[in-house]
Amino acid sequence: MVSATFWTATLAGTTAATAAVLPRSNEYDYVIVGGGLSGLVAATRLSEDPDVSVLVLEYGPIDRSNITQIPFYGTSLNTAAMRDIPSAPEPYMGDRTFAVRAASVAGGGSQINGMQWDLPSAADFDSWEALENDGWGWSEIQKYYKKASHLATPDPGIETKYGYSYDTPAYGDGPAKVSFPEFQYPDMYNFKNGFDELDVPFIEEHAAGNAVGQYWTPASINDETKTRTSSLYAYYDKVSDRPNLKLLPMHQANEIIFNEAAGDLSATGVKALNRDSSSFVEFKAKNEVILAAGAIFTPQLLQLSGIGPKSVLDAAGIETKLDMPAVGSNFQDHPAVFLAWNVTSSFPNPTTLTTNATFYAEALRLYHEEQTGPLTKSQASYVGFLSLQTVVGSDTASALLDDLAAQSPSEYLPDIYASDPRLVAGFEAQRATLVSDMSRGAVAVVEMPLSAAGRMPNALQKPLSRGTVHLNASNPQGVPTVLHDAMHNPFDRHAVYANLQFTRRLFNTDAMSVMEPVEVTPGAQYTEEDEVLDVLVSSGALTPTFSHPSGSCPMMPERLGGCVDAELKVYGTQRLSIIDASVLPIIPAAHLQATMYAVAEKASDIIKARA
What we know:
The strands form 7 sheets. Strands 1, 2, 10, 11, 12, 13, 24 and 25 form an 8-stranded mixed β-sheet that branches. This protein has 18 helices and 25 strands. It is globular and about 75 Å long. It is 30% helix and 18% strand. The active site is at residues 548, 591. Its cofactor is FAD. Belongs to the GMC oxidoreductase family. FAD binds at residue 105.
């Protein structure tokens, strides 16, 4: 692997622009907690009005180093820019603990992710609206997606060479510049042809509402510079000189301040720790406190402020201001299995950059001198998002969904659900729309990104298990206790096994025979569901997360266990809203990045309208 130090030396001049400096004041119209994807989008939009002052408090630093810019670096996890959060022991995954991924850098996940840029199907968003969230269906989200995005079409020669397909009307003219890389590894096309053999439908443009099949996705890469597009680079840096906008890195919000004198919980500001000076400071919000700390730390901040399940707050010694079990419930991610085959690879392949000095030197030259070649590519840009019917066939899909619909709704949920029937009712409503969508093949149940190597991730897109994010009773100010509760619901286990069987069929296609694949993980000798799952768990190949934490402060009616309404306002409070991935009621069948740009754009308009 090329060292970060080397890259910093080669492109040191690319880290310009610092946080804007306002006159010394602790009072703003809006205080945004979290300078990640949604926080910086909202800050940019709210500060368009020069008479409105906006403060963003970001836990981490501002990092414009090359490791955050060059697409190649998106192929591996930048753990240095993430919080160190171990999960609770996962009872249905051998009581193992897993790393919980949460960015701790300005720009959030958009600054360090794999740059995959994809939307789910229209039905994914319509399921949110079906849960009584008016205005959150496909037609509305599509409008805001176009407001955020701009697709740079590839050079005709590149388009022909790699076979890219797209439809420009699915995109807009927004700040988030996306594009296709100027390189693909040749073996990727063996996988693509294998999908064809298995009759996986080809979708010309996934962002037009049908994202169930196999298709190309662009990457969050600015085609003009061949560097990462993020909310820091694409939104904040373009407006950082606004005198009414301030970004404070290295500030950890510890408590939301409320005015309780009027008999309601009206948010008036935020207490934060300056992590550089170890001093506390209070910031006042004249209009609204906006939470954008993500699906892990937004519920924690609410609980530290006295809003959450009373049992959790009591155990942590926090005074309960509002007993709300919804805070920290409904936690979701995409459980993932990393399957492996030994293969005979063509030249070049995904390992060549790190094993062949000559190839690497040429790739480096191409990137710097011609802005092309392997370093312009990040994670997979060809994917399969498959329906349950594609994976197992129509008859088996119907049987699995019948079994799911017949489950007792509370049987496979975390313990806290037993304390509040509204949480169970919310899950039951989610299950009903999921069964309907999956039975129609309208949403994907698995993602299979094609990497041109023998490692094939399977990411479960519609898990039925639900987790929790709660204060650590012994250290409330430390990282919270995160329980995915993954694989609790038997539907998830059945789906993981079915996805594995489909992947085995893919590696056994004629198209893949040239690579001479030999299964390594879990191993061809394991054929029964229970033994396969046991091997996947014991080997560490099955993880509860694909780094897509969401859903822990869901947007649903209170009677369905919701935390915020369709206007993103926290129930039982005034002047307090949430705009990050914690509000997603059902995790979409996609990487979250593109969806969250649309959510943040819509949230900004909602907040502006009520000012």
